[in-house]
Write a structure and sequence with these properties.
Number of strands of chain A: 2
Order of helices and strands of chain B: HHHHH
Number of strands of chain B: 0
Shape of chain A: globular
Structural class of chain B: mainly alpha
Number of domains of chain A: 1
Strand content of chain B: under 5%
Radius of gyration of chain A: 22 Å
Helix content of chain B: 55-70%
Shape of chain B: rod-shaped
Number of helices of chain A: 8
Distance between the termini of chain A: 50 Å
Strand content of chain A: under 5%
Structural class of chain A: mainly alpha
Oligomer: heterodimer
Order of helices and strands of chain A: HEEHHHHHHH
Distance between the termini of chain B: 91 Å
Largest sheet of chain A: 2 strands, antiparallel
Chain lengths: ~230, ~90
């Protein structure tokens, strides 16, 4: 049973060939592009949502920061759609893999840091020492701020991985408990089924919130460095 | 359909004045308005989306079929004695 619990997180293969790339590319089908002036309802709703999100997220940035709009909007759409598709039965969620999330977090964080050091070197170095620090605390605080800087991409990746993995595991466990209790005590099975429904609703919310949090944090790192 | 002014009375008599015909005329009128002004895309996007999700679930089920077979409960043989029975 313990082995089966984590079997859904194994990278899927078909006849020995890894098909994880196909699964990663699948959400792009759900966002059709159109060259019409007036689109159908699906595309209109998607365009409205993207416009709403980009206005809310990119309003704090200057001209240099707003060049990242396409990157950040693609990021939130990709993570959100991947997390939501992972809630379908039997589906594989790429964002449960730490390798994938590190692959997203490290380049984006490094891009913001390099941009900050390249264009505003003094301001970027000044982030290592908060204003008003006592003199005898300066060495220790510089070390702490350096560690906190390098922890940022790790925290981004691990936060997303842990949230999505934990949610899927809980659904798996409570679903298994509901099935097992159906023969023993139907009333208890009903209670666990209601808990399962509430948990599924929570996981829908967590899927979207985690995508927003990931993108917002990258946006904040960008704002600090531009 | 082209109707000449002189043929207008005879064309009007051809209409279906039963309640079913009148309701059908209103339905056809609404459908013409909807197809021309509201439904721009030819394909039904809702059906396409649910079809995609269903195919995706089926595809993933087929991939994870082997692991699922292990979760099926095993039938106990009749000759086996359980530990609880011994205690």
């Amino acid at each position: 049973m313990n082995e089966n619990l984590f079997a859904s997180f194994a990278t899927p293969t078909m006849m020995g060939l890894p098909i994880v790339i196909l699964i990663i590319m699948f959400p792009s089908i759900l966002f059709p592009s159109s060259n019409r002036l007036i689109n159908n309802r699906l595309i209109s709703i998607q365009q409205w949502l993207v416009q709403l999100t980009s206005k809310q997220m990119m309003a704090i940035h200057n001209n240099k920061g707003q060049t990242w709009t396409l990157m950040l909007m693609s990021l939130i759409l990709f993570i959100g759609s991947t997390n939501l598709l992972g809630l379908l039965p039997h589906s594989f969620t790429p964002t449960t893999q730490l390798s994938m999330n590190l692959g997203m977090a490290i380049p984006l964080w490094a891009g913001t840091v390099f941009m900050g050091f390249r264009h505003k070197t003094k301001a970027a170095l000044a982030h290592f020492l908060p204003q008003g620090t006592p003199i005898f605390l300066i060495p220790m605080l510089v070390i702490i701020e350096t560690i906190s800087l390098f922890i940022q991409p790790m925290a981004l990746a691990v936060r997303l991985t842990a949230n999505i993995t934990a949610g899927h595991l809980l659904i798996h466990l409570i679903g298994g408990a509901t099935l097992a209790l159906m023969d023993i005590s139907p009333s208890t099975a009903l209670i666990t089924f209601i808990i399962l429904i509430l948990l599924t609703i929570l996981e829908f919310a967590v899927a979207m919130i985690q995508a927003y949090v990931f993108t917002l944090l990258v946006s904040l790192y960008l704002h600090d460095n531009t | 359909m082209d109707v000449k002014i002189g043929e207008l009375p005879s064309w009007k008599v051809m209409w279906d004045f039963t309640p079913k015909g009148i309701v059908g005329a209103f339905q056809r009128g609404y459908c013409c308005y909807y197809d021309k002004y509201e439904q721009v895309c030819q394909c039904e996007e809702r059906g396409r989306c649910w079809g995609f999700y269903g195919a995706y679930v089926l595809f993933n089920y087929c991939l994870s079929c082997k692991e699922l077979k292990c979760e099926r409960p095993h039938k106990h043989h009749q000759g086996e004695t359980s530990v609880d029975g011994a205690l």
